[in-house]
Amino acid sequence: MNNMFCFQCQETSRNQGCTVIGTCGKNDEVSNLQDVLIFVVKGVALYSNALRKNKKIYENVNEYLYRALFSTITNANFDGEEIKEYIYEGIKLRKFLEQELENNKISFDSKFKNTRLATFEFDESCDLVDLAREIGVLRTKDEDIRSLREIILYGLKGLSAYGFHALNLKFESDELYDFFERALVATEDNDLSAEELTNLVFETGKFGVDAMALLDKANNSAFGMPEMTKVNIGVGKNPGILISGHDLKDIKELLEQTEGTGIDIYTHSEMLPAHYYPKLKKYKHLVGNYGNAWYHQTTEFETFNGPVVFTTNCLVPPKKNATYNDRIFTLNATGLPGWKKLKTDENGKIDFSEVIELAKRCKSPTEIESGTITGGFAHGQVFALADKIVEAVKSGAIKKFIVMSGCDARQTTRKYYTEFAKRLPKDVVILTSGCAKFRYNKLNLGDIDGIPRVLDAGQCNDSYSWAVVALKLKEIFNANDINDLPIEFNIAWYEQKAVIVLLALLYLGVKNIHIGPTLPAFISKNVATLLNEQFGLTGTTDVENDLQIFFRWTTPAFRSGSFLGSTCFC
Q1: Please, where are the H alpha helices in 224-266?
Q2: Which CATH number is 63's domain given?
Q3: What is the CA radius of gyration of the chain?
Q4: Do residues 403 and 350 share a domain?
Q5: Separation of alpha carbons 424 and 312, rounded Å
Q6: Which residue, 513, 527, 501, 542, is CA-closest to 212?
Q7: Global confidence as pTM
Q8: Partner of 276 for a Cys bridge, out of 131, 132, 226, 284, CB 3.0 to 4.6 A?
Q9: Both 455 and 307 in a single domain?
Q10: How far apart are CA 215 and CA 221, in angstroms?
Q11: Is residue 458 located within the same domain as residue 521?
Q12: For the stretch 63-75, what's the b/e string if a residue is b when 16 or more beta carbons lie within 10 angstroms of its beta carbon?
């Protein structure tokens, strides 16, 4: 009998599901508590959405729904006690909303009246394993219905992350909140057919585009448009603070509070793109990026020597002999037992004073590499290079663009992406975002007429830039369809933010996407067949075979040259 069941990430055991302990490192208790939390979140959404449709909106509920679901993303929170706090907070909110419904004489869909979703109470004395079986993933017996429900849920997890980041910068969307709640409830609606759920999958993709657009606007408004930037990967002589995760508001506050203290700030993993924003890189003590993708942290945190701040996922439980546990701090939806949690005040401000004082007593980082890497090619910067890019396409210097966005992870099979990048023809430009870039962003792949062959837009949500660029290229090149452009998609995935990016691309009509290194375990055979037949979605194979697939043909518009009539991105 399984102690748990989770198959939401790419590294799930045997590509079937983790049943004893998560490959990510979460134990069965945390996994089961997360199942309970997800069920509670859906219950809150049931009441909140009924009130929202009647113009009754509660900001604390909006924030809770994003934050709570975000905490269940892979590698976000391993702290069972904190997950329990989320559960109790949700039940309290649900009861408040229930009273608000009664006070305003509003009701929700009668099919949910007196159901467990509407009335659930958490009793810590109950058998958690049995409870998780009753309300978790495997409660849905039909494999295809289960698959569609989980695709929607994992897309919503990704959406919650992007929505949470935008909310931290005071950017919100009532339409996003409404869909988020409605879709959460829909995953518990036994009356919905497979066809209706399939339509909801694609609608999730639509709102994924909207969420990424909102976050793009929030980040650009707060920190300026990303610009081409060389980032130092060496170290200085001052003590340092390493900041990891995704939330740019947090690094802005850290930079403000450390200015003039003699402490250097370094980014780690998905925080690397902070260097691309003008209003962040202006801080002279933002020295560089330390290390590589998230899963290297168990070695890189040892050599960094100073405190580390986690703003969001991805965190890795430390080894038993780790020496850095007393200098790790977490924020927002992240947590791990034994690591200190930084709190925010009523105005959302973080007090980094404890982190700063600790940093002053620490040695400077040990250098693990040197040199620079270049990034900052979000859609604004790409448009600024429009003339060069169009001319390179016209001349034949650039034959194809290949989007290699997504996630990096531990599996040795992911060396595929390094080898694939190395073996690409010299007239191909890589468009990347997310931590997948760490498989090839330090390779010497050169440039094409001054255009780097690896264009890094930023974090995983910045995959939005490649959608914007592709749609603009369609317009410029007078192509009938986005799939007529010389752009291919070879996407690496790991967790649920990659799922919402994939759904967004499908909503935009992008076809023939390859995803790897494995197809998601939560996609059933029938759903996989549907996606393949409708969109040409398929998995990766080996480098040699995939190179032949990607380069055995050229799009009709590219062959005819019909798209070469304009040179303006504006």
Answers
A1: 248-258
A2: 1.20.1270.20
A3: 23
A4: no
A5: 33
A6: 501
A7: 0.95
A8: 226
A9: no
A10: 10
A11: yes
A12: bbbbbbbbbbbbb
